[in-house]
Automatic annotation (TrEMBL):
<feature type="binding site">
    <location>
        <position position="66"/>
    </location>
    <ligand>
        <name>substrate</name>
    </ligand>
</feature>
<feature type="binding site">
    <location>
        <position position="261"/>
    </location>
    <ligand>
        <name>substrate</name>
    </ligand>
</feature>
<dbReference type="GO" id="GO:0004359">
    <property type="term" value="F:glutaminase activity"/>
</dbReference>
<feature type="binding site">
    <location>
        <position position="116"/>
    </location>
    <ligand>
        <name>substrate</name>
    </ligand>
</feature>
<feature type="binding site">
    <location>
        <position position="167"/>
    </location>
    <ligand>
        <name>substrate</name>
    </ligand>
</feature>
<dbReference type="InterPro" id="IPR012338">
    <property type="entry name" value="Beta-lactam/transpept-like"/>
</dbReference>
<dbReference type="InterPro" id="IPR002645">
    <property type="entry name" value="STAS_dom"/>
</dbReference>
<dbReference type="Pfam" id="PF04960">
    <property type="entry name" value="Glutaminase"/>
</dbReference>
<dbReference type="InterPro" id="IPR015868">
    <property type="entry name" value="Glutaminase"/>
</dbReference>
<dbReference type="Pfam" id="PF01740">
    <property type="entry name" value="STAS"/>
</dbReference>
<keyword id="KW-0007">Acetylation</keyword>
<feature type="binding site">
    <location>
        <position position="191"/>
    </location>
    <ligand>
        <name>substrate</name>
    </ligand>
</feature>
<feature type="binding site">
    <location>
        <position position="243"/>
    </location>
    <ligand>
        <name>substrate</name>
    </ligand>
</feature>
<protein>
    <recommendedName>
        <fullName>Glutaminase</fullName>
        <ecNumber>3.5.1.2</ecNumber>
    </recommendedName>
</protein>
<keyword id="KW-0378">Hydrolase</keyword>
<comment type="subunit">
    <text>Homotetramer.</text>
</comment>
<comment type="similarity">
    <text>Belongs to the glutaminase family.</text>
</comment>
Amino acid sequence: MSATDAVTDSLNRMRAEFGDVPGGRTADYIPQLGLADPDAFGLALVSMDGHRYSAGEAEVPFTIQSVSKPFIYALALSVLGLDEVSRWVGAEPSGDAFNAISLEPGTGRPANAMVNAGAIVTTALIPDTPGEPAFDRVLHCLGRFAGRELDVDEEVFTSEAMTGDRNRALAYLIRSTGTMPVDPVLAVDRYFRQCAVRVTALDLATMAATLAYGGVNPVTREQVVPAEVAARVLAVMATCGMYDGSGEWLLRIGLPAKSGVSGGLIAVGPARFGLATYSPPLDTSGNSVRGQAALRALSERYGLHLMLNPALPGSTVSLVTTADDLPTAPSADHERELHEKVGVVAAQGAIDFTAAERVLYALDESGTDGRGSVVLDLHDVTAIDSVALGMLHIGLGRLSADGRRAAVVDPRDLLGPPDIVREGTGQDLPRYATREAAVAGCARTLAGED
Ligand SMILES: NC(=O)CC[C@H](N)C(=O)O
């Protein structure tokens, strides 16, 4: 028994509870998919630390099908950039079925990269490079998201290639509007191969976790795609990932998701986790019946809805001393009195835009009536992003313009080299290794001004 069994237990509970939800049919328009075991039911979760949890048939291989679409969209965005990709594929929910024969009126573009039309174009956008043919890039990209080398299920590929006339029709329709970058037959062949890549629920959860973790695979630690790309892919998954059920899904479950007709389903908790389920029976939209039921219950019971973000502020500023903390009675000890006139703001954790606002607010509140010297203690700060850095420089500059003296405890030079800080604040910002030294330094300055 280990403590983390509690996580596995919740997955096992979901499996037991939803394992015999009736209804749904295994996809058989691709004959080989009709052979899947309808009772297989696997669940997997991967944390941002790369911890992997699973229940049931989480290591049974199946073909990825449409769950590949967000990852190849990510590849296209990384290779070509958002503007170029958007010339070919839109980003509007279509409200149509996944295989709808419809293109955006006016532009002729497929509505988005999560429906077949858009995915076929997205795959076609990936160019060959001298060292690596386009499909190898697709396969390797999926493998980097999964954290292991993947392969193609040739039987499923052939089965779809022999019956996939609807997708071929789509590819020809797209070419007729001028929005198909390569030969339609080639495009569809690559797309079928991509759909036939073999994965497990654990692979899918790792892939989902990579999108959750800003494009970094939390198991291998490889940066697979840039963070902005991962964010954009999640945006399209949130609005289009469940086809014509996308609005209802975002409303009730509230997690970017993507389903596939072999029964795979992923859901992403940004900066929190990747989840995946595998259960072949599908509803009429082509989404796994049990997978949806289990993810819905997980979301509701564990409060995972994206818009219900429990990561509320409150932990950035760990200490702020204000006038209220200062003794009003004159102290006999002059030096101690000076020490007590120095306000202290201590921050902790990673500082981004919202955290920087809290630090700046605390600086204004600190000290005697928002005046006097203040020490900003960054000892427990782990990182400051570039936006927050700019804000802190400007904020510290404003303090000195107001006549307040500031000093920082910045043992790891998170604020940047002193000359950069001087440029931003217009003054030398004394730096100290410890809070005690900074307070003593400020007190000495006050004594000099006495
Ligand atoms: N929704 C899906 O998973 C569809 C993928 C399948 N290969 C198709 O194009 O029909």
